[in-house]
Amino acid sequence: MADQALVATPSPRPPEKPVKDKPGPLEYMRQWPLRVIVGATLLFLYLPLITLMVFSFNDSRRNIVWHGFTFKYYEKAFNNDSLQQAFVNSLTIAFLCTVISVILGALAAVMLWRFRFPGKTVVEGSMALPIVVPEICMGVAMLVFFARVFPWPGGLPWPLNLGAITIAHISFAFPFVATVVRARLASFNRELEEAAKDLGASEWRTFWDVLVPHMQPGLIAGALLAFTLSLDDFVITFFTAGPDTVTFPVKVYSMLRFSVTPEVNAASTILIVVTVILTAIGLQMQNNEPKDKKA
Amino acid sequence: MEQTWKQARAAFAAISVPPLAWLLFFFLIPLAVIWAYTFGENTGPTTIDFTGTFANYARALGPLYLGIFVKSVVVAAITTILCLVVGFPVALAIAFASPKQKAWLLLLIMLPFWTNLLIRTFALIAVLREQGYVNFALEWLWNNASGFMTLIGLQPLGEFEPLTLLYNNFAVVVGLVYVHLPFMVLPLYSALDRMDRSLMEASLDLGAGHLKTIFLVVVPLAAPGIASGILITFIPALGSYLTPDLLGGTDSQMIANVIERQFKRANDWPFGAALSFLLMYLTFIAIAIQALVQRRSDRRA
């Protein structure tokens, strides 16, 4: 039958009308069962968050039924000094953690990418540990460390009293940065480095003018990761925070334990908006990167 | 080629000392201290003697705490399976979407991942509680069904009883799935996206249906991605503290909650340390299993 079809002169087909192009066999996104699943999943992921954000504007203490639009919980959140302090603390810790993690992570990535040295597998394994160790284990380790081995002096002036939390955050964030940067370094052409050195550039100059520009997208992605990891962390902070060094998640947690107020909704909405904006900026910076690669 | 460290000693020292010193001092030493504590004994309110005892491990492996370990593993496994069942079709749909849709869908899956874990859990409470949206929707359906029953001449249903969706094991599993779904979708997506599509086309051309193609062609091809998705979901789910703490009831404590209690309230650090090391060993076992599966599938390829 197939042979006949080959031999037979093609019969004039009726002109195909593009009424509705049927989805191809592999265009799963255009088949309804999968559309339903994707839609339901997105609903599941977003409904709670959107509810939370919408009801932060609701003029009622019980956030169930819509009672009218208000900013009063934002005002309350802004006038809540301890909440504000916690927010500033969180941002400060996240900023310090990002700067130091990017430096340490970049150095670690270059070390593992560039050198052969005895015990390299051990170093690689220990660098992966902070990524895989359960948060709770790291939290209690930090608690004991700062309580017994390396007591962080109490009563220090403001940014210094955040030292213990910042150190703990850097310890889990910089291996993530190292992983991201190392992946980026894999695409580096080592001959460029050799060329720079042949042309008389010093070790430092080569690192700064040749290697760092290549690492840049990895550094941005790593910085973004470190910042959100630090801002997001609750468990490890919970174990290292003192009474006067409360971060935003720890503060929200204690507010939740106490009572669920719309103020928490407002504060959470602010944090969500801050993270979304930062992520958007970070993604934008990464998307702009391929242009200068061509040059 | 990689340099040996001897070729550029100064550069190697400058590059390697800061991260290695940090890792040693602020990560490995704290872990080592905890490990030493697992062999210690409480001798006073704040003094701990390192006596080399195994009593902490023996107590942790007793029926009560072993039960909590088993329960944590079961809860984490159910979470992982649910994430896989939901995440696989989602990842498949994203991998085969048009490039523009793909970028948007990936962003939508990743965005909750960037929002604070505590806030996401808190948001879930508002939806699941007795006067939350899930119960509102159920009540609406119930009342309509009741009205329909009277309409066709049957006994109307009784008064709607709101379901208790919070502060039990159900809520913990829902919360864990909610939090960990992006962890599963992303590795699955990257495995499915890299897959050779002509094999799927061949299978479909040769008369296999979509489901048969997915189970006999796609799943084996994407096995490494599935394995890493399972691992990346299972490990944080196993050690999760916040979700069982906020969404669970008195009987839904997972191992991390017990550890926290030993350190913060019960003040039995050696025992808490032993529990956290057991949790770490469990994590390493999970990683080792995944590595074995990976190696086997690499060898087959």
- Looking at this structure, what is the CATH superfamily of the domain at 64-129 and 165-300 in chain B? MetI-like
In whole angstroms, the N-to-C terminal distance of chain A is 58 Å
Number of helices of chain B: 13
The helix content of chain A, as a percent range, equals over 70%
Q: Uncertain segments of chain A of ≥5 residues (pLDDT<50)?
A: 1-11, 291-295
Can you characterise this structure?
- The complex is a heterodimer of chains A (295) and B (301).
- By secondary structure, chain A is mostly helical.
- Chain A folds into 2 domains: 45 residues, no CATH class; 214 residues, MetI-like fold.
- In chain A, 73% of the residues lie in helices and 1% in strands.
- In chain A, α10 runs antiparallel to α13.
- Chain A is globular.
- The N and C termini of chain A lie far apart (58 Å).
- The N terminus and C terminus of chain A are likely disordered.
- With 301 residues, chain B is an all-alpha fold.
- A two-stranded antiparallel sheet of chain B has the order 2-3.
- In chain B, a hairpin with a 5-residue loop joins β2 and β3.
- In chain B, α7 packs antiparallel against α10, α8 runs antiparallel to α9 and α12 packs antiparallel against α13.
- At the A-B interface, α2, α4, β1, α5 and α6 of A face β1, α1, α3, α4 and α5 of B.
What can be said about this structure in brief?
The complex is a heterodimer of chains A (295) and B (301). Chain A has helices at 2-7, 32-55, 72-79, 81-114, 120-132, 135-149, 158-161, 163-185, 190-198, 203-232, 235-240, 248-258, 262-287, 289-294; one strand at 115-116.
Task: Kindly list the characteristics that best describe this protein.
heterodimer, A: 295 residues, mainly alpha, MetI-like fold, 14 helices, disordered N terminus, disordered C terminus, B: mainly alpha, 3% strand
